[in-house]
């Protein structure tokens, strides 16, 4: 259902209108950087374009929920759709099996529509900020073609096999490795193909490392080893046209090791499960029933610049639209019941709540 | 040069607007430690000092140990701040030691040789400087937590390295500037590393996010602790400065809390 005329969707800045004379999978970024899509259009918008080539993206997992897999799947699939070579590593015995779960672009009639607006009139007083030209509320008019920067990936539709049976994909299992040296060598080999030269980038690659310090790995208690692996990965990435996405469960590491990893990340995200049937949260947030989890953006890559990226909000709800498409939405506080006197007085758009609440509107 | 208006950061670091009191390079013989956290990076302070070290005196030299970013990054950042690192390098005033891939080859054992070699390299670079450039040398380390990593977790080696650098710079009136991520050391056992370095430092610059949360106009708050020693009377005083900052491409603005219009 198309939005009404009160939204400025057709005139808000369209990120993909920046002409890139390169491959459709690449987009020019600021300060001489280049973006590739994360596979999730909302995330691309939040990050200001996508993942920066040469950067290290770290996703902090929630040990109780596999939401990081949703991000990984979209990231990997988007790269394969753009014919960007992929190196995938996981602690499972057969990482190739995971490729069968990668999503495929949805069919064109499944346009992603934003939240139905039938309740809008009742909530205008609380949601008026939405109408101040925020670009992220556009209708996504992607037709799902392969030549788009970011495709709408349908998590229920598996990617056609021909995308990953070619030599485009390398898989490494780290389940039985005593240490990370094998993976480091494979990454070094992979990264060497994309090393940046003076002539500018021509092709991009992606590395996805899932749960690299999970307890089933033999080296999971060798913290300095793992840290130096990530550090060398980061060093190699900076001089190549690759985005490396690494997920790790911070709760299974010592706090200082986890902080070191967080500092090493150029872009730092975390995903959290939200409990079902949490009455407090249901009262606090609209659309709580549809939420699968929460995404926090802690840091956005600042390559070649010292200016930090300050986001309007850092916490987003993870929803599966039509149970197929991954979307991230700003949290909207439910109307406060005047008679009850809610204790959640925090409705300031730019402030960050205390750690106990950890919800940022 | 000296005609530039001094901002709050400069004043906190010891630059005086009164030219009679101004030394050519106020950070000579001092160790400036910048501490930051995941939420707010303190790298902009390093960039600020790097730029100041070139503008302070026509024959100053900088030795930059980069563990965190490659030279293109600093080149671009400093260029927007009005400082051309490439030409400084060509005129023998800027030495970039790329430590991004420095890692000891033997796993599990502390790497004495790695960091010792780095220190020797610094000494060599300094000894090869022309006599005029040798007067105002600044050594910048970005950052210390990566030093520890390069030493395979041996914080003793990292501390020793810093002690060596500190001795070298304080005895020869060079400046030493380093960045550390203080939230890595917040749990009990590792906090001694951070405390030792803080103790060594003459000027401590603590960068934090705003207590009230994110804002587009104010990126964070800084506390500068300057342990000034009045050598004549042997009295040491500590000056504390608190202010906010906003980082821009070509400049960082520093202002007192609430004074931003």
Automatic annotation (TrEMBL), chain A:
Region (Disordered): 1-32, 340-361
Main localization (coarse): cytoplasm
One Pfam family of this chain: PAXNEB
Keyword annotations: Cytoplasm, Nucleus, tRNA processing
Record-linked InterPro entries: Elongator_complex_protein_4, P-loop_NTPase
Record localization: Cytoplasm; Nucleus
Pathway assigned in UniProt: tRNA modification; 5-methoxycarbonylmethyl-2-thiouridine-tRNA biosynthesis
Gene3D superfamilies (UniProt xref): P-loop containing nucleotide triphosphate hydrolases (3.40.50.300)
Similarity comment: family membership: Belongs to the ELP4 family.
Name used for this protein in its record: Elongator complex protein 4
Organism name: Stylosanthes scabra
UniProtKB/TrEMBL annotation, chain B:
Family annotation (CDD domains): Elp6
Domain of life where this protein originates: Eukaryota
Annotated TM spans: none
Pfam family, one: ELP6
Pathway assignment: tRNA modification; 5-methoxycarbonylmethyl-2-thiouridine-tRNA biosynthesis
InterPro entries: ELP6, P-loop_NTPase
UniProt family annotation: Belongs to the ELP6 family.
Protein name: Elongator complex protein 6
Organism: Stylosanthes scabra
High-level lineage: Eukaryota, Viridiplantae, Streptophyta, Embryophyta, Tracheophyta
